[in-house]
Amino acid sequence: MNTCIKLSGLYAVTPDEQDTPRLTAMVTAALEGGVRLVQYRNKSAMPEFRRSQAAELLRLCRTYGARLIINDDLALALELGADGVHLGRDDGDLRRARAALGPDKFLGISCYADLNCAASAAAAGADYLAFGSMYPSATKPDAPPAPLTLLGEARRRYGLPIAAIGGISLSNAPRTIAAGANLLAVVSDLFGAGDGAAIAARAQEYQRLFA
Fold first, then answer.
1. How far apart are CA 127 and CA 161, in angstroms?
2. What is the reported pLDDT for 137?
3. Which of 56, 121, 178, 204 has the highest CB neighbour number within 10 Å of its CB?
4. Which residue range is the domain that position 32 belongs to?
5. Angle at Cα 55 formed by Cα 48 and Cα 62, nearest 5°?
6. Which residue in the list 140, 155, 169, 188 is annotated as catalytic?
7. Is 41 an annotated catalytic residue?
8. Does some domain include residue 169?
């Protein structure tokens, strides 16, 4: 497990954006606003296009001293030398993923609202556990809800950083952190904030919640 890095703060998750220069500009703005953990997520693109986008974001994150996590694609994360991978419960064997990544890369696991899933993830060597949807989400409108109490319970049981995802906004972020979230995984409320200056300002507002 990657124990030398503290996982805390805003976790910027990219939208399904087909315009790579636009995506790069949005992520640049988030990085300028203080984001240091980015997850590349694009469910609609073809593999080669995803590889191209991920490579560009990795280059960008390196420039800003940030880390890039690849969503649901261990092979791509390994090929590019990204900083880790985020997997769902149907995305392969977690112990094999941990072994393939080695001790210096991040393994994040989606646990939804399931503490049994979290137990398996923790035992497999996850670096953080993600729960959600915490609130109604435009990105995943059909995702089942996860209660806020789950965040603190998982943190107490497994002693790992906890990421909250799904409908996170500045208005509900403080109570989500208070409930036990170390990381706030945000898509729409960050990248839908407006132009680059607005995205950077929104990222700064989130980061101040962890100061």
1. 7
2. 83
3. 121
4. 9-208
5. 170
6. 140
7. yes
8. yes
pLDDT for the residue numbered 6: 80
In a domain, 4, yes or no: no
Residue partners of 122: CB distance under 8 A and separation at least 6: 129, 158, 160
Q: Which of 36, 50, 67, 110 is catalytic?
A: 110
The DSSP output letter for 187 is: S
Q: What angle do CA 71, 74, 79 make, to 5 degrees?
A: 110
Q: How do the residues of the chain divide into helix, strand and coil, expressed in percent and rounded to 5?
A: 45, 20, 40
The two tokens of residue 73 are: 């694609």
Tokens of 54: 């991920």
CATH number of the structural domain spanning residue 173: 3.20.20.70
Tell me if residue 105 is catalytic. Answer: no
> Is 188 in the active site?
no
Could you tell me if 39 and 12 are in contact, meaning their C-beta atoms sit under 8 angstroms apart?
yes
3 within a domain of the structure (yes/no):
no
Nearest to 47 by CA among 21, 80, 22, 69: 80
Q: Which of 41, 50, 67, 202 is catalytic?
A: 41
Mean pLDDT per segment of 10 residues, for the chain of length 211 residues? 74 97 98 98 94 98 97 97 94 94 97 96 97 88 89 97 97 98 98 97 98 87
